[in-house]
Request: fold
Amino acid sequence: MNYIGQDSRVDLRVKFIYRVGMSPMPEGLSVWRTLKGAGVKYVKFVIVDIFGRPKLEILPIDAARDAFIDGIAYDGSSIPAYTTVNKSDFVAEVDADAVYIETWNGGKTALAFTSTLDGDKPHPMDPRNALKQTVEYLKSRGYEAKMGAEVEFFLVRGNPPSLVDSGAYFEGYPLKETMPVMEEIIEHFYLSGIGLTKTHHEVAPSQFEVNIPAGDPVQVADQILVYKILAKSVAQKYGLIATFMPKPFWGVNGSGMHIHVSFWRDGVNLFASYKEPTPELKSAIAGVLNNALANSVFVAPIVNSYKRLVPHHEAPTRVVWGLGNRSAMVRVPYYGKKINRFEYRHPDPSANPYLGFSAILLAAFEGLDKKLEPPSPVEDIAYDLEGVKETPKHLGEAVKLASEGVAAKTLPQQLVKAYLALKEKEWSDYLASVSEGWDKTWNVITRWEYDQYLETA
Reply:
């Protein structure tokens, strides 16, 4: 159970005991009783779609009791690509460790994440199941992975959007339009149970970053969705839009979602060292770099993503790595020559975090398992390098490259096939919307992109 509240009279981590026979209470029922005792009136059961967007089944707290025990029944054919209408009666079981109170709504509602079943097995079309299975596979091979995320986004007004502040990186002066929004967002970030964080104004006007604390990959992926819901809800109160579209404005930095990764064995961080990267860290980086082009469709998944991946705006375009080098695709944080993780700067916040995380972990594990060696780290500004691999030119190219990677070969094939088909259609829809084609529109943010991504990415 994930909840931290200053005024709550109920400890949401307490396990209650049935009075009848003193047998342990089912975990779901324990969670339900805790929510009811905390004053929650409605539960929003979260089903994650193939794009990584939350779909909700909302029940009053009393009606939600049985759902916490037996799961939530829903029409699977209404979720993109999940199933056909003739086989659409699905059940999703509630994850009792992934429940968050929406403190920004006065604590009257809660988000409860679910995993869809195929009979008594995980359904292959649920991306949350895919990440859970990836994590379990790593554990079966003796590894525990921890991931964290730096999520960048813009606070804007209208569609087409306009910037609402003139702040710069680490802006120190008060910003009338955006700082009250960010203060409220950060307050609820903590109260809702995501954890402690830090935030700052990013390079572009109206752009901010928050950090999702490192932890279990499934939990962190859930928390990215909770954060998006939170940020969008608070921004709406101020008449603004919190957009996670990677490149809403040409000529300024886009928004990335930098992913920090470490691998552990028997409680020991295999990437931790001073001065020199460990052999395990280098092998993991080699796996990530080898799969970078194939994984692009999972970590930079929309047409607009490839307008972010251009030189000189702190987005990676060269498939290289370096120590403390923010122009490289993979950066090893190197503060005081202390090393404990790598940072993958390729992803953006429009990514389905469950599929994106799975692709990253599988790539890193392939490097570890095969003891791959990466090329030498790059010290120069990577945008100026020649003769090295570059990120795909556009989404259409990324779709074609996907089949070459370990993720597309390892994730449930039904899921991969449907996902790539939808991405191919998305690319075709974009081309149909612009008469000039990509070569004339790669440096222009089109109306089609705003309509597709501004509020839904």
